[in-house]
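ZP: hey, is the magnesium ion complex queued? I don't see it on the tracker
AM: it wasn't, my bad. submitting now with these inputs:
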Amino acid sequence: MDRRELIKGVGLTTATGALGLWNVPAKSQETENTAMNGLPSVKITKVKSIVTCPHGIELIVVKVETDQPGLYGYGCATFRQRAHAVVSAIDKYLDDFCRGKSVENIEDIWQTAYVSSYWRNGPVLNNALSGLDQALWDIKGKMAGMPVYQLLGGKCRFAVDCYSHANGKSPEELVDSVQKIKENGFRHIRIQLGGYGATHMADRADFKDAGFGTPEDNYMNQQTYLKMIPVIFETVREKFGEDIELLHDIHERVQPMDAIRLIKNLEEFRPFFIEDPFSPENNGYFELLRQHTLTPIAMGELFNNPHEWLEPMSKKLFDFIRIHISQIGGITPAMKVARLGEWFNVRTAWHGPGDVSPIGHAANAHIDLAVWNFGIQEAVNFSDKLREIFPGAPYMDNGYMHINEAPGLGVDVDEKVAAKYPLPKKFNYNWTQVRMKDGTPIRP
Ligand code: MG
């Protein structure tokens, strides 16, 4: 059967109504080449970036257009810290590289685009590649008339179990925050004590007392942090008992030996996992960590290069792989990471913060539904503004994430609304700029 017959009339219907309906005329453009199965191939005609920043968070999406009217795909390429560089990689390089190629051959396009820069595995190029890759999976789902998780093997669970973030400037504030999240149906809750560099964790900075730095310099008292985290675990366990699972993110901002001692001391509170004990440069400490504690460990949101996860996963040095999927190049490499983890009992816990577009969250969830070794997903609630820009975005209910069952990734983009929120001229570097008490920059 002619593929154009197969794909005829398959539409994208989202929770908010019919969107992007496409209908390929049976005798439309004849294509020169054929896809691998001998049927006429669908060609890429354009790869372009779409940017939007509705809440001060720079979101980047790739749109892949094809020679079939109404058939297109979207993928997440969000790397807010270098948004303009990702946009340039998409519009100035991937567009030219992809035009005329067959949308069917995702693996081939991924492999050739991956080495097209010769030097590779950096966050800018990986994000551009992720946008392309996810958009091609979106298109493949639309062509098949199936949600992407079906193409990945179908559902292995009913919905995606998630954790949510509780935060407070004191243990008492944190308890209130945990209570609210629990009432919303969550069974897994991440507990944090304020932000890193927050004033309550940094009442005095030696370097500021000595007259160095500027008023804007953030400071973190690592010892205050190390002292307080067992206190919040004890407080929350005492208040809520064993009914909930507790998670915590160290965010790499302490010395490795201090992180190991902290994690060892938290063992009695039975954390579900402790996240990001070391910066990627300190991966070599995992073996020592494993020798000292049975606390489950999650790691990987800063990973870009396969060498950062291949050996630790194959040695079972952590229990959850927390890769940020657009930072490694999309669904194609993430599925390989997930399958690798299955054989070493490393479960997935994909990074799912606010600086992942709703399309990226949908990509996380499609994989979560399909892979056996799913662990947990970081939850997100989208604002009405984001839902207007991204119709069909996943939604939360009773601690579970649900996806739109439309073909593809199920999320569309209203490009006119997205354009109302352009990228800001200046980037706010605050998040990565925290100093020790002597003024030394802390590496996240
Ligand atoms: Mg983290």
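AM: back. The two ends are 54 Å apart (CA to CA).
ZP: great, adding it to the tracker
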